[in-house]
Amino acid sequence: MKILANDGISQKGISLLEKNGFDVITTNVAQEQLGHFINKNEVMGLLVRSATKVNKDLIDACPNLKLVGRGGVGMDNIDVEYAHKKGIQVINTPSASSLSVAELVFAHLYGGVRFLYDANRNMPLEGDSKFKQLKKSYGNGKELAGKTLGIIGFGRIGQAVAKLALGAGMKVVFFDPLLDDVSLTLSFFDGQSVTFHLKKTDKEELLRISDFITVHVPAQKNYVLGKNEFDLMKDGVGIINAARGGVIDEVALVDALESDKVSFAGMDVYESEPRPEIRILMHPKISLTPHIGGATNEAQDRIGIELAEQIISHFK
Ligand SMILES: NC(=O)c1ccc[n+]([C@@H]2O[C@H](COP(=O)([O-])OP(=O)(O)OC[C@H]3O[C@@H](n4cnc5c(N)ncnc54)[C@H](O)[C@@H]3O)[C@@H](O)[C@H]2O)c1
Predict the structure, then answer these.
(1) Residue 292: inside a domain, yes or no?
(2) Enclosing domain of residue 229
(3) Please, which pLDDT band fits residue 123 given cuts at 50, 70 and 90?
(4) Quick one: which of 158, 224, 256, 259 has the fewest CB in 10 Å?
(5) pTM for this entry
(6) Is the pLDDT of residue 308 over 90?
(7) Virtual CA dihedral for 143, 265, 154, 13, nearest 10 degrees?
(8) Which of 284, 280, 257 lies closest to 267, judged by CA?
C-alpha cells in the first residue's frame, strides 16, 4: 500500500511504515501534478505539512485516496469537511511539537532577561572597541526564578510551558475560558514526579500580576493582547508570542516597548507573515525567530511516528 509524504516525513516514521508493509514515497510533487501522480501510483494515503493544499479539486481528482495526514496542528490547508464527506480519514499530530514550542518560549524568556537579543546584535559590531560599555549596559539582567509567568491559553502548549516554568522555579498563573482547575505532573529523569494543582486566574488579574506573559491560544477574531491589556500590565513586563500572528496587536506592542511598559518581547509569529513589519524586525527590544517553534528534530520524529502509528491502525 502506497503512502505519499509530499512535504517530507522523518526517517523514523518511514521506517515504522515500511516495517509494517507500506511503501513510502517522499518525492515532492508540484500541487498541479499531485492528482495525476496519486492516481497513477495508486497512492492510498497522502501526508502533508503546511505546504501542500488538500482542497476540493484534489479530493475530487483522487477517488481512491483513503487517508490524509497532516504533520502538525493546523488544518488550514486541508478541506477537512469535504474530505470527510468523501469518506477520507483525516489525521494530524496535535501534541507532537508542544514541548518544542515551550522550549522556544523559554529560549526567548532566558534570552530576554539577559538582553541576548541585543548583545548578539552589538557584540559583533562593538565587542572589541566598547567591551566595558556593553558589559555595563547588559549588567542589570534578571533571573526568571521567583517571578510570575502568566500563561494565556492553557491547552497543550500552555501546559508544556507551565511545566518548564515550574521546573525553573517560577510561579505560574493561567487564564483559559475552558479550564478552571488543572493538575500538572512534572516527571524527572530519575523516576520522581511532582504534581501541581493550578487554579484559573481572572484575565485582568493575570495581566496585573505577571512579570512575563506568554500567549498560547488558537487564531482569534480579536487581539488577545492590545492597548487596553498592555495598560493593565506591570511596568517592565516581558511578552512572548509563539502562538499565531494576530493574537497580539503589534502596533500596541511597539508603543508599549517604546514607553518601557514592556521591557522586551520574544516573537516567533507575526501579523504579516511571511513578511513581518520592518518596525518589528528592526526593534532593538525584540527577540526574533522565523516561526520555528515546533521545528525540532525531536518533534519531527514524534510527528513521523504518530502519523505512522495512526496509518498502521487505520489500514490494519
Ligand atoms: N510557533 C509554532 O511554531 C507553533 C507550533 C505549534 C502550534 N502553534 C500555535 O500554538 C497555539 C496553541 O496550540 P495548542 O496545541 O496549545 O492548542 P490547544 O488547542 O491545545 O490550546 C489552546 C487553548 O487556548 C484556549 N483559548 C482559546 N481562546 C482563548 C482566549 N481568547 N483566551 C485564553 N485562552 C483561550 C483554549 O480554550 C485552549 O485550551 C496555536 O495557535 C497553534 O497554532 C505554534
Answers:
(1) no
(2) 143-284
(3) very high
(4) 259
(5) 0.92
(6) yes
(7) -100
(8) 280
